[in-house]
Give the backbone structure.
Amino acid sequence: MKFTKEIKVGFLAVLGIMMSVFSYNYLKGINLFDKNRKFIVKYEKVDGLSVSNPVTMNGFKIGKVQKINFNSKNTRELLVDIIIDNDVIFPKTSLAELYETGLIGGKAIAIIPDYKNDSTIAIDGDYLKGVIKPGLTELVNQILPQVQLQIEAVMKNAEIVLQNINTLFDDETKKELKSSIEDFSNLTSSLSETSDEISKLIADNSENLTNSLSDFRSASNNIKSITDSLNSDDIKSITTNLNSLVNNLNSITTSLKNSEGTAGKLINDKSIYDNLENATNQLNRLIEDIKLNPSRYINFSVFGKKNK
């Protein structure tokens, strides 16, 4: 069977078209010979997401973004077509989380499998629920207004404090503070002068102080030598004598207390004390009468005449 020239040209044209389609899809990251699955994800916004951005699962790349377009039924939604070129399976209730890949603002989609719920496996053409993970920029934008409000409150409080300080420190208070500072300065100067005088006094009497310290050291050495000279036998003898003396004093005190002997009776017998007191009084009256009437007790005459 012979092919005519028209058939050959047609075959080459079809082959060229097929090669063009394959090359176009290959450049877009789609391999027509691989078994790919396409899923559609709905988002409210896709800031920074573009075609060919990676699709990951547990940090591993399993596909890429194929197309982004508005939802014809609801223009407030965006439909993102993703291609999964991996045999991994996940439930239909899994989430497609849009997140930032780095600080420079790159975006990617992460498949978060829903293993907790026993749902059906996602197949080609299914819709996945899209969620947006707040990035660093969004977090900063959320925190900045709160920080700004706190800073404004702090500044307002600081302004109130400054106003109160200005009200408190009026002219009279400032004068009193200035006077107190001057008094403190004068006190410091006086303390400095006193310290200088003490230093000078010590310097002038350093020799006397040295001699006093030497005398004190000598006295300490003498006391130490005396202490060292007393051996244990001497100390024991002194202790024995002191104990004996204490025992004797205790015995004498006991005897006096128990009215033993003359001294004890004199101390404890009240009648003896009363008799001694009466005798003393009579003796005093006798001496007084002799002084007043000596002729009554002494008879003396030059011529030997006796007085009656």
User: Anything to note?
Assistant: Helices lie at 5-27, 136-168, 171-204, 206-229, 232-257, 261-268, 270-292. The CA atoms of residues 155 and 161 lie 10 Å apart. The two ends are 215 Å apart (CA to CA). DSSP finds seven helices and seven strands in the chain.
